[in-house]
Design a protein that fits this description.
About 20% of the residues are buried. This protein folds into 2 domains: about 35 residues; about 110 residues. The protein starts with a helix and ends in a 6-residue tail after the last strand. The protein is globular and about 45 Å long. Strand 4 and strand 5 form a beta hairpin. The chain is α+β, with helices and mostly antiparallel strands. Strands 1-2-3-4-5-6-7-8 form an 8-stranded antiparallel barrel. The protein has 1 helix and 8 strands.
Length: about 160
Amino acid sequence: MKLRNLTTTIALVLAAGAGTMTLMRTGSVAASNAQTGQFHIAKNCASYAGGPGSFCTITSSNLPQIPAGAVVYYDQAAGDPQGMLDSNVVLFVGTGNWATGRCTLDLSTGSGLCTFSDGTGALAGFSARVNVTPFPDFVNYHWDGTYAFNPLPPK
């Protein structure tokens, strides 16, 4: 009888181990399905007035999910703290299709950093780290960095 219980216990441990290995393998495959790459966007800020709700318009993009015409809305006013723009942002492509992030710029140089952490619609699972540099006119800006679209968890 003891041998039968030992055999059953060993079989259960082996089955649990095989299930764990399958889950680990499936998890690593899902993680490897993330789409990643370089991010290059130009935006025009002629409509940006410096207050909450001000926006810039994307004029070119290497990502089909963020086409020209998409808008970046800034939630906080420029100049607070003094000489800086530090704002929550919404990258709005269309109804149900947007991403959230944060941008911080030194207003004296026009250079800064934006990060995005997630979105909805075509931007679901989107994350990015973007260096911001101005064109000489300080109206148009480059966004250059890296992005990822991570698979969403199952529902």
